[in-house]
Amino acid sequence: MWVGTFYGGLNYHHPMAPAFGTLVYSAYKNSISDNTVSCIVEDPHTGNLWIGTNDGGLNEYDRKNSHFSVYRANHHNARALQSDNIKCVLPDADGIYIGSHGGGLSYLSARTKQIENYTFPEAVSFSNSCYSLLDGQDGTLWVGSIIGLYRFDKKDRAAIPASSGTRISPAELHPHIRPIPRFGKPDMDWNGRKLVRICQRQTGRMERRHIRRSGSDTGFLHTGRQQSSYLDRLLRRPV
User: Fold this and answer.
1) For 170-193, what is each residue's pLDDT tens digit?
2) How far is 222 from 201, CA to CA, in rounded Å?
3) Number of CB atoms found within 10 A of residue 119's CB
4) Taking a C-beta distance cutoff of 8 angstroms, is the pair 189, 173 a contact?
5) d(CA 1, CA 11)
6) Exposure string (b/e) for 182-206, b if CB count within 10 Å is 16 or more?
7) What is the pTM of this model?
8) How many CA atoms lie within 13 Å of 200's alpha carbon, on the beta-carbon side?
9) pLDDT, position 136
């Protein structure tokens, strides 16, 4: 088990070990680049760990050789990350997608080790931020940004608004899109606080649903004219 910590570096635990081990930053030897870890993903193709940090960029950890490779931001190089504050990573067959605060969406090629950077329409400065990624399994990515929800076309390398060509504004959707889970069909996108949107992948149509708390009902889901149901039941639907 791998655990990312706030100022405590990367922690790991083996079932046969009596306690957690730690991997922390060192200025004198190969190490993780920062002690605040924001995300950890195992690469299904190499078995390496991709580790996003708060102020140290992206780390690739080769577990077999216990070696870190670090990718840092360089604003003078268009082929480098544009932010060291990494929020999410998503490997695919040819590389890895990287979301960062203030650096938008990036893609690191596994073959060339070159980085491509993409910005969101209407984004400026820190609002060009990506906080969550989900593979749409249809050649697109669902991208949660600081200014709304987008779909990224892998072939065209472009981010487009998620809903029928019209950008979902912060007034309609809480702007800080956090991790986007997948629950059956249609997909459910959790966007924080008391609002859930259900999005049909094929049409891009977004349906707005609110959660209301009443007495002991901690998962009450209200869907307007539709019959109310329980959120926990909806979330547990089989994929």
Assistant:
1) 334 344 455 555 544 444 444 444
2) 22
3) 14
4) no
5) 8
6) ebeeebbbbbeeeebbbbeeeeeeb
7) 0.71
8) 6
9) 87
